Amino acid sequence: MQELKNNLFFVGIKHSGKTTFASRIASRLLVEYSDSDDLILNTLGGESVRDYYKREGKEAFMKKEVDGVSSYISSHRHSPFILSLGGGASDNPPLLSLLHDNGKIIYLKRNEKDMLKVILKHGIPAFLDKDNPELSFSLLYEKRNAIYEKEADLVIDLGPYRDKKETEDFIFSILKENNYVQ
């Protein structure tokens, strides 16, 4: 049986596969998995994350994110886990510091043009300029990619979208190769 050596925090840009592959790897290793959005949602008393963000703003949301992740980490001190973070985790230095102090940051990197296609399939999200989503995404991608490249303990370039099982196997092999899984 494979064993997780450190807590793993999966980060990446929206729709990069963080939630999908973090949960699949956790299942494969028989360790607990959670998503930071769910941790925040649990503290909002029925309000959506999007509504809270709109009402309270970015700073309040980022504090909620740090508080939720910190609480989760504290409650899992004796068992390794895998956690996926929201796409904007790169904009939250206290959160990144918390992640560094409590495990390894895994950046699931995808090609900018591929990412934009996937994001736009679901309509233009609020964080992109409606008049020029391509340019606004390009600027956002450039900024967040630079932060994730710098902050990540391990960058996994996933290339173009492919079969989920094949991608899971690829991620797992990279984790094993880098001794994050034994």
Account of the protein in words:
With 182 residues, the protein is of the alpha/beta class. The protein has one domain (8-173): P-loop containing nucleotide triphosphate hydrolases (Rossmann fold, 3-Layer(aba) Sandwich), CATH 3.40.50. The protein has helices at 18-29, 36-41, 49-56, 58-75, 93-102, 112-121, 133-151, 164-177, and strands spanning 8-11, 32-35, 81-84, 104-109, 154-157. A five-stranded parallel beta sheet has the order 2-3-1-4-5, sandwiched between helices. The longest helix is centred in the last third of the chain and has 19 residues, at 133-151. It is globular. 31% of the residues are buried. The model has no long low-confidence stretch (mean pLDDT 91).
Annotation keywords:
5-stranded parallel sheet; 5 strands; Rossmann fold; 53% helix; alpha/beta; globular; 182 residues; 12% strand
Helix content: 40-55%
Order of neighbouring strands in the sheet with most strands: 2-3-1-4-5
CATH class: Alpha Beta
N-to-C SSE string, H for helix and E for strand: EHEHHHEHEHHEH
Count of β-strands? 5
The CATH H-level homologous superfamily: P-loop containing nucleotide triphosphate hydrolases
Average residue-wise pLDDT: 91
How are the SSEs placed, and which strands pair?
Blueprint: E1 8-11, H1 18-29, E2 32-35, H2 36-41, H3 49-56, H4 58-75, E3 81-84, H5 93-102, E4 104-109, H6 112-121, H7 133-151, E5 154-157, H8 164-177
Parallel strand pairs: 1-3, 1-4, 2-3, 4-5
